[in-house]
From TrEMBL:
InterPro entries: L-rhamnose_isomerase, L_rhamnose_iso, Xyl_isomerase-like_sf, Xyl_isomerase-like_TIM-brl. GO terms for molecular function: isomerase activity; metal ion binding. It comes from the Bacteria. The keyword Transport does not apply. Keywords: Isomerase, Manganese, Metal-binding. This is L-rhamnose catabolism isomerase. It comes from Algicella marina. SUPFAM superfamilies: Xylose isomerase-like (SSF51658). It holds the Pfam family AP_endonuc_2.
C-alpha cells in the first residue's frame, strides 16, 4: 500500500486549488437547483470492481511487452488492486479469474482483507486448456460435440462457484470461446442446444443468493460464428435458465456503431441486465481504457442506468475489463475507475423532469441539449471530493507517481519474459 504521509503530501499540494474548484462548481450547480454535496455523496458510494487480470500487462495475438514489476500471482495482483482502491476509493472489490487465480480460500480472504478488498463475480475459464486437463477445448467447451468435454467444462464452473462461496462472492460470470471458423463447421441449432443443456447444469447448482451472468461476444477467438454472439442470444439464455440468470454487457463485444445504450434499456425492461464490463473500443473488441475514445457513449449508458435507479431492486454489477499494453496497468485502472464515476456523476446531473417534458412535446433539439448540458459539466471536483472524503487521493495518478510504488515492486518481482503472444 502507499504510505499515509505520501498520500497526505500529495493531497496537500493540490487541496487549496481543489477547495476553490469545488466551491465554484457548487455555486454553479446551485443555480441549476443541484446540491453538490448530495451528488458527491452518491458518487462516493459508487464502486466498480477491478479484474484481477487487469493489473498485469495485456497483449495481442502478436506480442506481449511486459512492464516492470508484473504481478507474479494472485497475491501480488491483490496488492496492486489494493493500491488502486486506496487512492481512488472507487474499486472496493476484485473479480477473480479461475484457474489463473486459484488459491486456498483462507489465503485469498486474508490477502483481500489486508488489501481492503472484497470479492466480486467469479470468472470461469473454459477458453484455454490447462495442464493435466483430460479433454481439450480446441473445438469448444460447454457446447462441445463430446459429452465428456462438456461435463469437464461444467465441472470447472462448479469449482468456481465453490471457491466463490468460500470467499464471499455472489455471482459467476461465464464467457465461452465456443464458435466456428468455417460455414458448415458447426450445426448452429444443435450447438446452441448443447450449450443450453450445459448452462442449465451450472444454473441448477447455483446457491440461492447467487446470480449467473452470461456474456455475449460477436467474434474472437472464433471468427465465423460464436455461440453467444449478441444480446438477443444472451437474453434467450437468461430467459431459458431462470430468474438468477442475467445478461452481462461488455462494451467492446458489439459491432461498431451498435447502439449499446439502447440494448441496456431493453435488458432493463426485461429485468435481465446483470451488469457491465467497461472498456472502450474503436474497431472491435480492442479492450482500450474506459472512455479513452468515446466518453459520450459511456455517459449515455449511465443515463439509462440512472433512469433505472429509481427501482431500488435495480443493482447491476459493474466491472472494468480492459487490456493495458502501453501504460502502467495501475494507472490505467485508476483512470478508468474515475471515468466510470465521471459518467455516473454526469448522468446524475441530467435534469430528468425537463428531459421528460421535451420528450413528451417532441422537442428533439432541447432533449438532446439537456443531455449535453449534463455531459459538458466538468465534474472533476465532485470526483476528487468523493475520494478525499473517504481517505483517498485528490489526484490519484500524481499520488501514485509520487509514491514510487512501481519501482518498489519491480525490485521485489522478477522480470517476466516478453516472448510469445497472447491476451492476458
Ligand atoms: Mn468482458
Amino acid at each position: 500500500m502507499i504510505a499515509q504521509d505520501i498520500l497526505d503530501e500529495s493531497n496537500a499540494a493540490v487541496s487549496t486549488d481543489h477547495d476553490a474548484d469545488y466551491a465554484a462548481l457548487g455555486d454553479h450547480l446551485a443555480r441549476r437547483g443541484i446540491d453538490i454535496a448530495a451528488i458527491a455523496g452518491q458518487v462516493a458510494g459508487y464502486g466498480v470492481a477491478v479484474p484481477s487480470w487487469g493489473v498485469g500487462t495485456g497483449g495481442t495475438r502478436f506480442a506481449r511487452f511486459p512492464g516492470k514489476g508484473e504481478p507474479r500471482h494472485i497475491f501480488d495482483k491483490l496488492a496492486d488492486c489494493g493500491v488502486i482502491n486506496q487512492l481512488t476509493r472507487a474499486t472496493p472489490s476484485v473479480s477473480l479469474h479461475v484457474p489463473w487465480d486459484d488459491a486456498p480460500a483462507a489465503d485469498l480472504l486474508a490477502a483481500g482483507e489486508a488489501a481492503g478488498l472484497s470479492f466480486d463475480a467469479m470468472n470461469s475459464n473454459t477458453f484455454q486448456d490447462q495442464p493435466d486437463q483430460p479433454y481439450s477445448y480446441k473445438f469448444g467447451s460447454l457446447s462441445h460435440t463430446d459429452a465428456a468435454t462438456r461435463a469437464q467444462a461444467v465441472e470447472h464452473n462448479l469449482h468456481c462457484i465453490e471457491l466463490g462461496q468460500a470467499i464471499g462472492s455472489k455471482a459467476l460470470t461465464v464467457w465461452i470461446g465456443d464458435g466456428s471458423n468455417f460455414p458448415g463447421q458447426s450445426n448452429f441449432t444443435k450447438q446452441f442446444e448443447r450449450y443450453l443443456a450445459s448452462a442449465s447444469e451450472i444454473y441448477n447448482s447455483l446457491p440461492a443468493d447467487w446470480s449467473l451472468f452470461t456474456e455475449h461476444k460477436m467474434y474472437e477467438p472464433a471468427f465465423y460464428s460464436t455461440v453467444v454472439q449478441d444480446w438477443g442470444t444472451n437474453l434467450m439464455i437468461a430467459q431459458h435458465l431462470g430468474p438468477k440468470a442475467k445478461c452481462l454487457v461488455d462494451l467492446g463485444h458489439h459491432a461498431p456503431n451498435v447502439n449499446i445504450e439502447m440494448i441496456v434499456a431493453r435488458l432493463i425492461h426485461a429485468g435481465k441486465l446483470g451488469g457491465f464490463h467497461f472498456n472502450d473500443s474503436k474497431y472491435g473488441d480492442d479492450d482500450l481504457d474506459t472512455a479513452a475514445i468515446d466518453p459520450y457513449r459511456l455517459f449515455l449508458v449511465f443515463n439509462e442506468l440512472v433512469e433505472a435507479e429509481t427501482d431500488p431492486a435495480f443493482d447491476p454489477a459493474h466491472m472494468l475489463d480492459q487490456s493495458h499494453n502501453v501504460t502502467d496497468p495501475i494507472e490505467s485502472l485508476m483512470s478508468s475507475a474515475m471515468e466510470v464515476q465521471r459518467a455516473y456523476a454526469q448522468a446524475l446531473l441530467v435534469d430528468r423532469v425537463a428531459l421528460a417534458g421535451y420528450q413528451e412535446s417532441n422537442d428533439a433539439l432541447m432533449a438532446s441539449r439537456t443531455l449535453k448540458v449534463a455531459f459538458r459539466t466538468d465534474v472533476d471536483p465532485i470526483l476528487a471530493e468523493a475520494r478525499r472524503s473517504r481517505g483517498g487521493a485528490i489526484d490519484p495518478i500524481a499520488a501514485y507517481r509520487l509514491s514510487g510504488y512501481r519501482a518498489r515492486v519491480a525490485a521485489e518481482r522478477p522480470e517476466v519474459s516478453g516472448a510469445g503472444g497472447g491476451i492476458v
